[in-house]
Every structure is written in C-alpha cells, then in structure tokens.
Amino acid sequence: MATSKILHMKDSGKSFHGRHLKESIKYITAPEKTQGQRLVNGWNCSPDCAFAQMMDTKGKFQKITGRQGYHIIISFAENEIDADTAFELTGKFVREYLGHEYEAVYAVHDNTEHIHAHIVFNSISFLTGNKYRYQKGDWAKFIQPITNRLCQEYGLSTIEIENEKAGNEYYKEWNVYRDGPFVWADMIKKDIDAAIAKADSYEYFLASLQYLGYEVKQGKYVAVKPPGLKRFKRLKTLGDQYAEEAIRRRIFMETEETLHEESVEDAIKIVSQKLPKAKRAKLTPMQKNYYARLYRLGLLKRRPYSQVWKYRDEIRRMEKLQEEYLFLIKHDIASIAELEELKETLRQDKKAYAAQKTRIFREKKKSENLFVIADEMKDYLEAERAFQMGDETFLEEHEKWKELELCLEEKHQSYETVQMLRDYYKKEMDACAEKVRALAKEERILNRITEEDSSNRVIEKEKTQKQTRKR
C-alpha cells in the first residue's frame, strides 16, 4: 500500500524567489537519506543542476514570481517494498504524471522505518511556459489512482478510491485508510518536527506548517490538515510531545541551546591596535576656494533628516560642488591651465575607448555565423539533456543537435567555446562602454567648473570696473 500527498512551494520574496524550491531539492537529495545519492534521479533535467535549470526555465518565460514548484510524497507501508523497487516505481510515476513538460527531481529515502519517495518538480513547463495547475480533487482523480495502479503492477496492496462518490461499502474503509492515524501520523509528526527545528517562536512554527501546505485551525485545541487528508487532526492525539504546551517548550529549549552554543563559540573579543596618525592633505588655492564656498553655504553642517525636503535645492548645489571639489582633488588641479590640459586628455581617452569598442564590434561580427549556430543549438538544449538522460522521445531533436555540433567542430569550435566567446565580447564591449560613460561624466564636470570659473571672472571684472568708476 502507498499513500500520496502533494505540497506547493511559495515564492520566498524579492531577495531570492526560489529559496524554498532550492531547499526542497537539497533536502530530498541528501546523501545520508538516499544511499549516497544512489536513489536520486532527474526527469527532463540533471539532478546535479536541476535548480539552475528550473530557474532558467522561469527566466526564459518571464515567470520568476509566484509558486515556485510542487512536492509530491509517496509513503509505502512498512516492510512491503524495498528501496530499489520503490525507486523504480517512483520513476514510472514521474514519467506518467508529469509527461515531457516539467523538470523534476525524485529520490527515495530509506533511512526511516517507512520507505518513502519525494518528487520535486518545477511549476513552469520548459516546453510551453504554462504553469502547472493543481485543482481541488486532482489527488483523488489522478495522483492516488496512478499510485494505486503502479502498486498493483508490483504486487503491492492499494487504497480503494474509485467508488468514493458511490458511497458503497468500501468507501468507509478507504476513508479510514486515507485519514487513519497509521497512514498520516508519521508524516505529520515528521513535518512538525522539522518545523519545530526551524522555528524560533510558536507563531513561526505555525507559519512553517502553512508553508508546507497544511491548514491550521486554532481553538481550544490546535488541529492541522495536510493536503489529501479529509479531516483536521488534533496535534495532541499524535502524542504527549505534540501537545501545544510541549511544542512551545521544545521550541524554547532548542532556541536556548542554540544561543548557548553560539555564545561559547562566537564570544566577542575586543582587539586594540595603534594606528599611525594620518597627515592632513594640503589644499591648493582652487581647492580652498571650493571648500570655503561649501562652508559659507552652510552645507557642511548636518541637517535634520526630517527637514531634508526644505533644502532640496541646496542639497543639489552641494552635491554638484562636492562632485567638482572631489574632481579637483582626484586630478590634483591647481590652475585653469591644468584644467585645459586635462580636458584635452579626457577627449583623447574618450576617442581611444570609442575606437576600441568599434574594433571589438568588428571582431565579433566575424564570428556571427558561429553565434547563429549556437543560438539554434540553444533551442534544442533542454531536449538534448533529456535525451542524454535516456528519454528517446527527443531522438529527432538529438539528431539535429548532433548536426549543428558537427558544423561547429568543422570550425574547431564547440557550443561551450562559442558561448564563452560571446561572453568575452560582451564583457569587453561593456567595459569599453563603461569607460566612455565615466569619461563623459568627468568631461561634464570639467566643463561645469570651467563655466563657473568664467562666470566668476566676469563678476570680479565688473566689480573692479565699478570700484574704478567710484574713484
């Protein structure tokens, strides 16, 4: 007998959308649970780089957010099946249920009394870009019936579900099997234990169960209902260690122990060190002039954060003056003549980098035929990976891949080297473009300083003329 359940993995946020998906794959493929990963395999992807391939698929179809994947667990009755047979049966289930659309990793864990299988698959089809849709009732219509039929093929007992709606004499028996404690209790306990280990508070513990797909009902007694279970189950019925008070105590004790260990290992140490006294840099007359202008404007004094909006224009002026001041310091400018020399140098550098960018573009153009072949091969990449894993339905795509691969070999290249060549050209062109942008920015600052200096000279000249007239 084998019973199944399906969970979904939510989006963990902007910082790392696929964190839960990655952790699930890491968990099910753990060597200590899978005979050193002997009982691990992939479908439509390689298990070693499954997460990367799944995220590439999401990026390809611009569906990074939302549900990241699904997790099916198939638990077998104790002493009814061995690990290798369970692994073979799980592989057949994956091929039949997921077909040729979704990337999946599956594994069998034999480190507990009950052998069980895990299947983690992508929420996005790598062929069509469509999202997997789980609808209410799919467990009874598809997932468990496939499990039952495969169990029959291997001579295992099954859960009778086909007459559920008819309400015949077997329905109650099936209901007991599906909702009975001997089927679900172990899985619920394991999920609760895992949630307690990760939680630092009771609220976080409940949230972890909800992430796993559980429905949580709080009243006089806390009750949970995993996907596939018909009724809620009170936690206290699982044993004394699963009552609410016991769970709160376990969370607290585990947290206290962790904190104690960390405090011993990572004790804070105060380290003192004498540093040589830094000498104050000497300012040139022009640099002193800019510093004095900043001081007279009162912009060197800190403004209250809540009043920043009042000084918006002054802040912009300060930023420009600071930019000009740092520019003069960086290039050690002490006179207008040096500014003019620097202006010519920047212009020549800008011209040189633009010429270098043009040269790289022309070199890249010579390899355009290689890039066209590589782009065509990229369209067959996922199918080729599936074929290499034994899926012969992609034979036609494999032959096309080989044909394109031969074209590259005739030019003494491969798909990987062409991709590296493309990345090299992109990196070089981006670097040149960045240099040109930086030089253009410095050129703008320099022109601004020159214009301001010219304006100051005109003002000083007008003042001198007025004073002369008064005399």
Question: In summary, what is this structure?
Answer:
The protein is of the alpha+beta class and 471 residues long. 57% of the residues lie in helices and 9% in strands. Mean pLDDT is 81; it is low at 163-182, 255-269 and 302-306.
Characterization of the model:
This protein has 471 residues and is α+β, with helices and mostly antiparallel strands. It is 57% helix and 9% strand. The protein has helices at residues 19-28, 50-60, 83-98, 138-153, 169-179, 181-198, 202-211, 244-265, 285-296, 312-331, 336-366, 368-379, 381-388, 395-410, 415-470, and strands at residues 2-9, 40-43, 69-76, 104-109, 116-122, 215-217, 223-225, 233-234. A 5-stranded antiparallel β-sheet has the order 1-3-5-4-2, with helices on both faces. Helix 12 packs antiparallel against helix 14, helix 12 (368-379) crosses helix 15 and helix 13 crosses helix 14 (395-410). It is elongated, with a radius of gyration of 34 Å.
